[in-house]
Design goal:
10 strands; about 15% strand; single chain; alpha/beta; TIM Barrel; 8-stranded parallel beta barrel; two-stranded antiparallel ribbon
């Protein structure tokens, strides 16, 4: 299986402290209608650290219910406990997800051999395709290209979401593993550079609010319409920056609220976007043409 194109790191709407299931499923349906290739529930943008296990599993089930094969569902399934990551990955498989996005263990700081054994245990305990999520800024551990190459030899470890902020990585990974190993950027603003260095797509925060534009960029890249890619890349850049002007996903939740997709409620210890951030986000959305 190949993971390519524009994927959305789905936010999780809340209403009075609970998951807003209707708003979430409406968001998923809109994403598919706008051309999003893949849906990623229960990642960082989905506030997975503050979801209970029951909520986590329910959000994945809600995504699968709406997708119905019309978009790839890559379910967040990471944990700093191998046993818990296995449980979440097995649930993603049972729920009907197309793949599991498995985070490198955070806080524990395992060695490279520890990373290998963690992912191998998850792989061996499930039958679902697995995409590694490497984000050292949040986990305090960076999976090396060498470790990733070892893991790619396992039959169901098929790709990586790379948020290492190192644009040499996709090229080195492509040379080490080959083109069959899917590489998805985890950083909106460098998506085009990542694609040019051997990447296959992006798991995007911005596409929560601009799914059509993000999908168009990836289609233009696939068609090698470089002028259109550059135009879209420049159009989206101010919005990418605004989505990270404060701790994510507060900015994108406020942006989505301006489109009527959800409320701004976010779980502690994160806070809703500040007034200054809201002004910046609204200005970026007007500049892109998403609001008047």
């Amino acid at each position: 299986m190949r993971f390519t194109g524009s994927y959305t790191a789905l936010l999780t709407p809340f209403r009075y402290g609970a998951v807003d299931e209707r708003a979430f499923q409406d968001l998923v349906a809109w994403q598919i209608a706008e051309g999003t290739a893949g849906l990623v529930p229960c990642g960082t943008t989905g506030e997975s650290p503050t979801l209970s296990y029951a909520e986590h599993k329910r959000v994945i089930e809600l995504t699968v219910e709406v997708a119905r094969g019309r978009a790839v569902v890559l379910a967040g399934a990471g944990s700093n406990s191998t046993a818990e990551a296995i449980e979440l990955t097995q649930h993603a498989q049972k729920a009907g997800a197309d793949g599991a996005l498995v985070l490198c263990p955070y806080y524990n700081r395992p060695t490279q051999e520890g990373l290998y054994q963690h992912f191998k245990a998850i792989h061996d305990a499930s039958d679902i395709p697995i995409v590694i999520y490497n984000i050292p800024s949040r986990t305090a551990v960076d999976m090396s290209v060498e470790t990733m190459t070892r893991l790619a030899q396992l039959p169901r470890i098929l790709g990586v979401k790379d948020a290492a902020n190192d644009l040499a990585r996709p090229l080195r990974t492509r040379l080490a593993i080959g083109a069959e190993f899917s590489q998805l950027s985890g950083d909106d603003i460098t998506t085009l550079a990542f694609l040019a260095q051997g990447g296959d797509g992006c798991i995007s925060v911005t596409s929560n609010v601009a799914p059509r534009l993000c999908a168009q960029l990836h289609r233009a890249w696939a068609n090698r319409d470089i002028a259109e890619v550059q135009r879209l890349n420049q159009t989206l850049a101010p919005l990418h920056d605004a989505m990270f002007c404060e701790s994510s996903p507060a900015p994108v939740k406020y942006a989505a609220s301006l489109l009527g997709k959800c409320g701004t409620e976010i779980r502690s210890p994160l806070l809703e976007a500040s007034p200054a951030a809201r002004d910046r986000i609204a200005a970026a959305m007007r500049r892109v043409g998403l609001i008047n």
